[in-house]
Specification:
4-stranded antiparallel sheet; 29 strands; Immunoglobulin-like; 563 residues; 7-stranded mixed sheet; single chain; alpha+beta; 28% helix; Serine Threonine Protein Phosphatase 5, Tetratricopeptide repeat
Amino acid sequence: MMDLGRKLSLAGLLCAGLLGVVASGVASAQDAPVVAAPATPDAPVAAASAPPGATRASLEAAREHMEQGQARYQAGDFEAAIHEFEAAYAARSFSAFLYNAGVAAERLGQWSRAADFYERYLTGDPHSSDAADVRRNVDNLRTRALAEQPVQPIVTVTTTVEHHVVESGTETPTETTPTGTNPTETTPTGTTPTETTPTETTPTGTTPTGTTPTGTTPTVDGLAETTTQVMKSLLSVQTEPAGATVTLRRGDRVVATGPSPFAQTLDEGEYALSVEHPDYRTIGERVRVHAGKVYVVIVEMSQGHFLGYLQVVSDPPGANVFIDGSEQGVAGQTPFRSVVDTGTHHLTLERAGYAPEERDVEVDVGAELSLNVRLARVDYGRLRVVASQPHARVLVDGEEVGEVPYEGQVSPGSHEVEVEADGMKTFSADVTIERGQLTPMRVRLRPRPGRSAAWTTLILGVGSAGAGLYLGMRGTDLRDQLSAERDAGTLASDDPRILRGRLFYYGADVAYGLGALLGVFSIYYFLRDPLPDSDGRVLEPRDWALSPSFDRDGAGATLTGRF
């Protein structure tokens, strides 16, 4: 397949005046004036030329009205279809719009109105191959319209004639007979009865019962029956470069030929289309034309390709479209519409949060292929965590999964997510992960309070308690010595060791009290927390935006995301 970027650039040139062509075949011609193929005696009705300053707006209007007219006709609302075909003709003067309006008028039984539309069609395309048939149909419609008009009352004229007998034996009327009346009979000589003569009139243009006007179908009750016609179709051929000779054949017969841009009104059937240019090789293709459609054929002469329209719509929109693999890069995003080579193509649709969809499609000549795809979500979700503390650890259900900023796949359902860092208070939250959606989480970690005062008071308290223990033990030893000497009767009442023992006991008591006080302060400092807890916010799940991009040589790929 030709390089897609160059092809899309070509499409921009070719489609400057081409607006929507839908799968039903509805489309519009190029913005430049349409050049109708030269009329030939056996050629179908040629499309009328577009007005010289036709704008994109007029093309779009004609296309939209044609679409609406076809829809209304199919729905059985023929009056609305007529109005839409008339509006399409007002936007762009393709005589096929008039013909189709005539078909709709016939379906309504409005014979005179249908005949008017067909006559306007013949005025625009007098040399069409079916002109004789259309003229006969117009005669039939006029006859039927006239026959169904109310019949005028029969006029009866009474004439009185008096006769006198003369000697010669001849009859001499005494009064003049009114112009246009004649006695129906005479009596023997000498008598002239008064007679009345009815005069009958026949409605103008009627055909006596039992006769059939030329070109009509069999009659019913003396009235010509018309046959509802099949709608006309339009074929437009655009070439790059312009000016190529377009030839349209049906069987061995040349239907029409002319330079591009080329437009032709066609009957339903299969046609052979060939395009010739002195600087390029001749290329051809077969085109199947259905009734009441508009076809646009685009030809790239330098590459020898026929191009067709491809339209892809996805639910939800915004999916990346890849045509025939990812080597060419992303062709566009849905809703997607572009020209591609006719034939079979492999399409891949990718959208973050949804499983890729792959389809094989066939693009036909002159018709737009429309593809509607419903995407299914993937069976996992994603969790994204950002925090105020760099390199904070992220744990999901107690298992460390990475550091912030973190984004990764998580199974759907409820999970406990923790964010922790050295010297900071841990944040924890219950997070529900949805299939195919991203759940963002933003965390602000607060520092833990300092414990130096707690440890200092604890150490001092332990030291005081140790000192008290030591003094108590010394006092106890001294007391034991003094007690032994007192029992032996050798202890003097003024022995200085008695005072020293008391001091040991007093010191021990003071040390124990100070140690207990410092222990209380140590516990307080350990429990005291003047700073707020870490906090965070779990945002609503959303579709994540991931944009894959591929190097032109296919050497690598990148994946980025945002929320």
